[in-house]
Design goal:
Layout (H helix, E strand, L loop, with lengths): L4 H12 L5 H14 L7 H15 L3 E5 L5 H7 L7 E6 L2 H13 L6 E5 L2 H4 L3 H5 L4 E6 L6 H10 L3 E9 L2 H5 L1 H9 L3 E9 L6 E9 L2
Parallel strand pairs: 1-2, 1-4, 2-3, 4-5
Antiparallel strand pairs: 5-7, 6-7
Bound molecules: the ligand O=C(NCCCCCn1ccc2cnccc21)c1cc(-c2ccc(F)cc2)cc(O)c1O and magnesium ion.
Ligand 77Q binds next to strand 2 and helix 9.
Amino acid sequence: TKSTRPQRLLKAVQKHSTRGDPQSVISAIDHFCRHREWAMNVGDEKGSILDSVVSELNPEKVLELGTYCGYSTVRIARLLPPGARLITLEFNADYAAIARQVIAWAGLEDKVQLVEGASGDWIPRMKEHFGIETFDFVFLDHWKDRYLPDTKLMEDCGLLRKGTVLLADNVICPGVPDYLEYVRNSLSYKSCYFKSHLEYTKAEDGLEKSVFLG
Ligand SMILES: O=C(NCCCCCn1ccc2cnccc21)c1cc(-c2ccc(F)cc2)cc(O)c1O
Ligand SMILES: [Mg+2]
């Protein structure tokens, strides 16, 4: 039967990158998506912005909502200090199976815990199931209509602390208007927009960085 795009992306990683070398994995995925088949990774341009936010923050506890093939998981995990932990949530079992292999190929499995399921189900269980107090950094890249409800859910579950940074992908394309309105007008957040482009295209997109003020 026909292979899926994530399966073809994984093959390209295993063929064109070096096991244990996260940068080569990132480059192989970007090359595949730019020259073979577009895929909804955060990409190299927005990925550089993600890198700078993570490097500046040096987070210990990271939550990623939306793993897909593990591209942004690898981008974030490769920058984390020893002992830091990234929990990444993926709803789609097929994507999760590919992402586990991409993360392992990059040699980052010790820093990453991939969980399969829906954010609405898992966010309320983070504390008791993973022993998490609060997150230092959250990367939102899942269903666009879940960014706002899940942010409110994280607030209500006490998972955010003064200074927690939320970074949201796709705030222009596909767009998350209700989320943007909330973080830009709420007195509980200091928000700023990083203008960029939709991965591997000329279309406008960007990342919204929002610091929770408590
Ligand atoms: O849809 C996008 N991502 C979400 C994929 C599904 C996530 C499912 N999921 C994962 C964890 C999880 C937890 N709970 C519930 C659900 C959960 C996306 C789309 C585009 C895009 C597509 C076409 C186009 F023409 C332009 C842009 C670009 C992006 O960068 C994207 O990220
Ligand atoms: Mg995205």
